[in-house]
Structure prediction request, 113 residues.
Amino acid sequence: MDVIYAALHRRQSAGPIPAGEAAEVTEVTEVDKAGEAAEVRAVLWAHARPDDGLQHITVRSEADRVDLLVYLASRDPAVAEDTLSRAHVLIARGHQASPLMRRRYQPPAPPGR
Prediction:
C-alpha cells in the first residue's frame, strides 16, 4: 500500500457566488472540522474509480486547508504510472465534480509544485 499526503487550500475570498448556491462560511470552528472532513472524504469516495486503487482516506481540517492522507493499493513497480499522479487525478476529479469543493478550496496543484 502506498500513502500519499496532499492538501486542499481554502479559497481566501469567496468571490461571486454562482446562482442557486449558498455562500460558504470561511472560518471553520472546532465543531465544523469533523463535518468538513467527512464531506471531503465522502466526495473523494464518491468519485473514486476501481482503477484508482483507493483503500482508505484520512482527512484533517485546519484553519487554512484540509490535509489528506490517501492510501492507494500498490501496483507493479514496473508500471510507469506514478502513485502521486494517481492520487492527484483522484483529488482533482473529486474537486471538479463537487460544487462544494470548488467553492471552498483552490484547485489541487499538480505533483511537484
